[in-house]
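Components:
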Amino acid sequence: MAFPLFLEKIEKLFGRTDNSRSVVKNRLQLVLMHDRADIPAPMMELMRAELLAVLSKYVEIDQQQLEVNLERADGTIALIANIPIMRVRTVD
Amino acid sequence: MSRVIVITSGKGGVGKTTTTANLGMALANMGEKVALLDADIGLRNLDLVLGLENRIVYDIVDVVEERCKLRQALIKDKRNPNLALLPAAQTRDKTAVNPDQMKKLVEDLKEEGFSFILIDCPAGIEQGFKNATAAATEAIIVTNPEISSVRDADRIVGKLEAEAELKNPLLIVNRVRPAMIKNQEMMSVEDVQEILAIKLLGVIPEDDCIITSTNRGEPVSMSETSRAGQAYRNVARRIRGEEVPMLNLEESFGFFSRLKKLFAVS
Amino acid sequence: MTIAIKGTRNGLTIVIPDEEAWEQVLSQLQAKFGEQESFWSGAAVLELGERELEEEDLKKAIALLEEAKLGPFHLVALHPKTIETGARIGLCPPSAPEKLPTGNALYLKGTIRSGQVVRHDGSIVICGDVNAGAEVIAGGDVVVFGTLRGMAHAGAEGNEKAQVVAVNLRPTQIRIAGKIARSPDHGAPPLSKSPEVASIVGGDINISPLS
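Structure:
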């Protein structure tokens, strides 16, 4: 028991950043980034439809399985699209 | 010229009602004529914090529905006649009042000669929030140094700017625990302010006196010995335009400030 | 036993004790109404109890009362022959019995919580607690078989005789007709060990033990 406590103290002394304060600050900053970048549902739907239109020119897509989502990973917000391709169209 | 300030937070339980009661009492004790308006219809609490619950005969809905005159519903504080409370209705809900009626009510309060009208906003961002913010020209956001209340406060800042046309809300960080901040176990006031990026109006330390004074129905800002009471009085002075340094609890936050204090003593 | 005279909302009620001889009754009536003839007037109810009366005897009493400017008369009697006698000379029971506020009581079981309102024209009987923030508004009495912490309004339509009764009376506010009383500001009142009743006494709401 005593040793980890001691370690914790040392970590604090050297300013290691995995204390709960910096953890919560990072989590909060991320979640706020997401909140502030919130794309309204109608806009998301429009984006999805336009993406589909463009991609459909080149590949045949399983429209039922298409997923477009705003996700956060590794400190950034990303638009993640999961587009199952059924067949590549042959170029005329 | 009266100032109409809404006290809001988004999240419940961060201390809106306590803040409203204490700022009201502190301003009244500084000679201001203050009306407190409880907009939390259906979940009335401001009367309890002020210890005026047994004097309520008419409430805000009675005024709006013209069952009584505004003056009849206003409850004069038993300690300071400069302070008056317009209580919420307990047996109705948020839909009993609409933003236009709220605006009319505040206009009528202005005509009664109040220099400050403080509106205690309910938690949430629905009808109650819209009512409470409709008539306000200034906003104070209360938050705790804790992830969920800061997130909600951020949402409120956005909504105030976008929907209520209340720019530049001021921040009160409530329930600050200096010891935890010192041990890096809690966000500091600076962390919160950095994230929300709005002007800091005050810092209220966590104080057991809040519980005991609420038990008695006496706002803690009446207490000379309570740290939270002192902090609330400072906020009231800042609202009136005085330059008041932040309470010295910030001074014991870090190593450097402690050093500064040592130097100052020697 | 002497006769008793009570003033009610519906006029005068004269209660004639069964044990007294009729001659005595008549002389008592003479004594009471002969002296103060200007004081009494209007309708009167004669309560005769179990007494059996002949037409002649009853007429004597009525004649005496009419002299004192009383009338019309109603008869409340239990003996069938007296009722019959009364009917023969045009005396009938009071047409509409005094509407008691307890006539159509609302009975509720359970706790009335903050924000809830119970409203009823007649009396309200609650088997349970009324919490702070709850309101009970009755045209008649409010009776709580439990703890009353909220607001109770008895006689909401103006009946000043209405009462608020609770096993444990600790309300934020009590209203009777147009009067309002609130609990004291400092310190909760000592918990009474017995049920209490709030009623208007001398123009103010008064709380006394329920006896």
